[in-house]
Amino acid sequence: MNKKLLFLLLSVALSYGLSASLYAQKNKTATTNTRGLWLYDDATQLWHTTNNAAGLGRDTSFARGVADFSFQHKGGSFHRVQEGNRHNALSFSAERFQPIGKYLHAYGRFDFDMGRVQNRAWSDVLRTYNSNPYISGSPIAGRYDWQNFAFDARLGTVALGKWTYGLGLKYQVGDFSRLRDPRSRINLLDYQITPAITFATNAHHTFGLAAYYHRRKEKLPNISTVQSDANLFYYELTGLENATGSAGGYNGFQREWVDHEFGFDLSNDYRKGSYRRLTTLSMAHGTEHVYEAYKAEPGRYYTYTYGLNNKHIWETPARLQTLEANVSYEQGYADEFRQQQVLTTDSLTKVTSRRYETLITFKKRYQVHLFDATLHYRYHWMSKQGVASYLGGQASYNSARNKHLLNESTLQYARLNLQLEAGKAFLQHRLWVEGYAGYNAALGVKQSLADATTAYAKAVLLPDLRYHRSSYGFAHLQATFQFPLTIKGERLQWFTRAQADYLRTNKHTDGYTLGLSIGIIN
């Protein structure tokens, strides 16, 4: 681990805690923070889970912030080939809701995570499943390191007459590097800009509109090796079992994926007495270009995404109930190109330029259909310090269908997840114990390959069938302990959190996660 980087993050966390503590002392409206208050505030916010930053002026969050370091280890035999079997990760995050003067509300979140995954193969990209099929990778399993920086900032006005206005910005950069020959390095640049407004038509109804532009660029500039191996293969994938590999195929290989997405959210906020509801309809369309050297294009990927979110809140001084339903559907398809290189030599300078001309286009040769639905209910018992305990449950269904045309191959699967959850405060709200447990059922898997003898089919698709056919029981438990600590004369509220997850499948495989965090809340 980079010691300088760790020292920098520790300094950021400490300075964040000190500055936030000084603000809380000077600001008479600051509220003493506990996890119970955080749970209450998160549960009662309607607009924050949408893209609409203007909704900051419609929600009632108090000034609050948190910063924490976390370490996580994940292992077990329940995983897909392209995921790797062991993960170690270190992360830092800082989040704050804050009023600015009389007219503005602000929200900001910063995340950094770094880690290593072992024994990952056949995918050198960040997005492997149910997305752009034009990925690449080595069949030899290796270690990968990653680093990600992400920033989410939103600014919204208070109600100016019947209107509120807002602007959101999300920005992320990342690095994903393979540490074994052939050695690849992916760079990620991802940002989204979202202007937004809300309009109150009367005392009960408020409408909101947010429109965004999202650009994502994942770039693989080159691949290197530290030794020569004539038998070292590298593969380019085009969907399901279709993969082309060659010895030394990594030499001179470069590729970038550039996605441009436009979308909008349309929301309706209804409030009457102790009842509140927010319904949000979302739509988005993305076009992802795949470029190689001299702007050659193996294909292009398109997505259409539709979503519906409905959140309900019933609140009394002693009780709080929330019910949230989410439905999303995504349709993606890839056009495949057959191109020819065209060389043009300038008669005066004798300089030769290269470009690629598309001769044949296979329309919608690869298709993806994704459907997800979730229903989540939680009942909270309240106290003067926010939520004192809660009990809830969740049911979710998701399905995926991948299809390749000419030759025709399909892979489709579906899962149903049912879980119960509970949490309770102890020791005057200084200790919170929370957990959930449930069952994830594989509802059906169907795979039909035109050629099941390809290297990719034998190494990835056929072994992964065991993963898709596995049903499993799972459990999660975490304990958060809050304590005051004085540093340089400043009294800060610190916390530690330990958590563990375990699952066991009906195929005699398992998975586990262990995590430990320390942080500051204010």
Describe the protein.
The chain has 522 residues and is mainly beta. It has three helices and 22 strands.
H and E order = HHEEEEEEEEEEEEEEEEEEEHEEE
Q: How many strands, which pairing sense, and closed or not: the largest β-sheet?
A: 18 strands, antiparallel, barrel
Structural class: mainly beta
Shape: globular
How confident is the prediction overall: mean pLDDT?
92
What is the strand content? over 45%
Distance between the termini: 29 Å
Helix content: under 10%
Rg from C-alpha positions?
Answer: 25 Å
Number of strands: 22
Low-confidence stretches: 6-31
Number of helices: 3
How would you summarize the topology of this molecule?
Elements: H1 3-26, H2 35-44, E1 64-76, E2 86-100, E3 104-120, E4 136-137, E5 142-157, E6 163-178, E7 183-200, E8 205-220, E9 223-224, E10 233-239, E11 242-247, E12 255-272, E13 275-291, E14 299-315, E15 319-345, E16 352-383, E17 386-404, E18 409-426, E19 431-448, H3 455-468, E20 472-487, E21 490-505, E22 510-521
Antiparallel strand pairs: 1-2, 1-22, 2-3, 3-5, 4-10, 5-6, 6-7, 7-8, 7-9, 8-12, 10-11, 12-13, 13-14, 14-15, 15-16, 16-17, 17-18, 18-19, 19-20, 20-21, 21-22
